[in-house]
Design brief:
Layout (H helix, E strand, L loop, with lengths): L1 E12 L4 E3 H5 L6 H8 L3 E3 L7 H16 L8 E5 L10 H8 L6 E5 L5 H14 L5 E9 L9 H4 L4 E13 L3 E9 L7 E3 L12 E3 L1 H23 L8 E4 L4 H11 L10 H4 L6 H11 L8 E8 L3 E8 L1
Parallel strand pairs: 4-5, 4-6, 11-12
Antiparallel strand pairs: 1-7, 2-3, 6-7, 8-13, 9-10, 12-13
Helix pairs in contact: 3-4, 7-8
Bound molecules: oxa(dethia)-CoA (UT7).
Length: 320
């Protein structure tokens, strides 16, 4: 027996406003055909005024708590992954804390862009294992629509807004819960995917800039490598994986990564078609979809993976 972090429930929140490729084609020089063929994206959700990273995160957290049968006052730790916080400080996690009516817990944000949820999951897992709390909320929430350059067709069609959350509980268990996590960063690639503003430099929020083709190339190599690392760490073979829940950047990256690992495409959970790339929210959003539609069941062996700005990348292997 070992103290591990077990996923008790999942939740998600998407802004009601759904924007199709056809609608975007009215604003920028693009077509539904180009977007679908190059990315697999059909639509994305975009936050309205008043819908923020923290409000979406709170809604996702409430649903995760309900699914887990855990009350807000049992939560001792909130780790929120985001690159688009409501305020420069304090952390959006503290806004969520107050919205949930929690008077005292540990609450902070983690910034690792699209890998944010994997970083948050790993941090929360280790804090639970270390005895800092018994129940944790791990949330990925983003409003990337606010940092997109809506004149740049090469980026503005790729992203969407949303939030996903899970409740973790520390349990003495043989082999349930988070079995291993692995994280990486390589800051040399800053200029391939970044925001051209910041508090300490320009004093502005800035807009997202990306050299998509180069990011794509690195993504497939790094994701396959880190997935092999978590498999090796637990002694599992790729053939034992029931479900892959990847970061949803581009359907072609998902297909290429699955192929590299020899995994059948039907084991890969895909939501990029409906959500586009929601950065730190995409993994918990996809997890929530596959849990709620009954694909992922208790006892399944699942791997989560992501890669994004930094570069950062990471993976987790979980017995659900
Ligand atoms: O979440 C973080 C990780 N991010 C990623 O993983 C993103 C990884 N990269 C990608 O997903 C792909 O590289 C993109 C979807 C961003 C682009 O696909 P691509 O096949 O690499 O296309 P490209 O950038 O090489 O562009 C091909 C052509 C270009 O025209 P020319 O130079 O060949 O005449 C672009 O100007 O497509 C053009 N283009 C577009 N055309 C219509 C770029 N964006 C658009 C657009 N509509 N929205």
């Amino acid at each position: 027996m070992m103290r591990r972090s077990v996923i008790m429930g999942t939740g998600a929140a998407l802004p009601p406003r759904r924007v199709t490729n056809a609608e975007l084609a009215e604003r920028v020089d693009t077509t539904h055909e180009w977007i679908i063929e190059r990315t697999g994206i059909e639509a994305r959700h975009i936050a309205a005024d008043g819908e923020t990273t923290a409000t979406l995160a709170t809604e996702a957290a409430r649903k995760a708590l309900e699914a887990a049968g855990v009350s807000a006052d049992q939560i001792g730790l909130i780790v929120l992954a985001t690159a688009t916080p409501d305020q420069t400080f304090p952390a959006s996690a503290t806004i969520v804390q107050t919205a949930l009516g929690i008077d005292d817990c540990i609450a902070f944000d983690v910034a690792a862009v699209c890998t944010g949820f994997l970083y948050a999951l790993s941090v929360a897992d280790n804090m639970l294992k270390g005895g800092m709390a018994e129940h944790a909320l791990v949330i990925g929430s983003e409003t990337f629509s606010r940092i997109l350059d809506w004149e740049d067709r090469a980026t503005c069609v790729l992203f969407g807004d949303g939030a996903g959350a899970i409740v973790l509980k520390a349990e003495e268990t043989e082999d349930r819960g988070i079995l291993a996590t692995r994280l990486h960063a390589d800051g040399r690639h800053n200029q391939l995917l970044f925001v051209d503003g910041g508090v300490s430099t320009t004093g502005t929020v800035g807009k997202l800039r990306m050299k998509g083709k180069e990011v794509f190339r690195h993504a497939v190599v790094n994701l396959a490598a880190v997935l092999n690392e978590v498999l090796a760490a637990t002694g599992h073979d790729a053939s034992e994986i029931d479900w892959v829940v990847p970061h949803q950047a581009n359907k072609r990256i998902l297909d290429a990564t699955a192929k590299k690992l020899g995994l059948p495409p039907e084991k890969v959970v895909i939501t990029v078609d409906q959500h586009a790339n929601t950065s730190a929210a995409s993994v918990p959003l996809a997890l929530n979809v596959a849990v709620r539609d009954g694909r992922i069941r208790k006892g399944d062996l699942i791997v989560l993976e992501a890669m994004g700005g930094g570069f950062t990348w990471g993976a987790a292997i979980v017995r659900y």
